[in-house]
């Protein structure tokens, strides 16, 4: 298989060219278990249903906390403040999980171990990791350079 844009030799099923980065449109690979009449699978859609459920649960938590706050409290909006505190905590937790998953994927695609994403939670160490990603040679780049040297390119 060759790149549609630059002609680089690519492995079967490659979606993007490693040389020029162009997307490969004609790369449909059927596994040995599928027949030639089966249709290729489509890309996964964003989990809008999951996002909607999370938003509804957060709003329900806010409503419950505000409903069960004491009306005789000297702080009339105490339940509302507690509800917002709960929602902000849960949003921060969700954002942290998304951040860790994204960093895990970045590390594994670069050729590093995904566990490095846990170091992103440590202040100052996360800056060192980002600088290492930005200016260091990635293992995947080193492997690509070695493969190209073997092929004689």
Can you tell me about this structure?
The protein has 153 residues and is mainly α. It has 2 domains: 1-33, no CATH class; 48-151, no CATH class. It has 4 helices and no strands. It has helices spanning 48-67, 78-110, 125-135, 139-151. The longest helix is centred in the middle third of the chain and has 33 residues, at 78-110. It starts with 47 loop residues before the first helix and ends with a helix.
Task: Spell out the blueprint of helices and strands.
Blueprint (H helix, E strand, L loop, with lengths): L47 H20 L10 H33 L14 H11 L3 H13 L2
Helix pairs in contact: 1-2
Count of individual helical segments: 4
Order of helices and strands: HHHH
The overall pLDDT, averaged over residues, is: 75
Helix fraction by DSSP (H/I, runs of at least 4): 40-55%
Helix vs. strand class: mainly alpha
Count all strands and give the number.
0
Radius of gyration, taken over Cα atoms and rounded to an integer in Å = 24 Å
In short:
With 153 residues, this protein is mostly helical.
Q: Which labels suit this protein?
A:
153 residues, mainly alpha, 50% helix, 2 domains
């Amino acid at each position: 298989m060759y790149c549609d844009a630059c002609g680089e030799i690519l492995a079967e099923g490659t979606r993007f060219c490693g040389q020029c980065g162009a997307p490969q449109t004609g790369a449909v690979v059927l596994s040995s278990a599928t027949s030639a009449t089966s249709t290729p699978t489509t890309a996964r859609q964003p989990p809008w249903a999951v996002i909607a459920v999370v938003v509804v649960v957060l709003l329900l938590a806010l409503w419950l906390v505000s409903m069960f706050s004491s009306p005789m409290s000297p702080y009339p909006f105490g339940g509302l403040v507690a509800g917002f505190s709960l929602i902000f905590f849960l949003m921060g937790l969700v954002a942290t999980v998304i951040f860790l998953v994204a960093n895990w994927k970045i590390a594994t695609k670069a050729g590093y171990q995904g566990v490095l994403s846990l170091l992103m939670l440590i202040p100052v160490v996360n800056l060192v990791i980002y600088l290492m990603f930005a200016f260091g040679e990635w293992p995947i780049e080193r492997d690509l350079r070695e493969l190209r040297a073997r092929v004689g390119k």
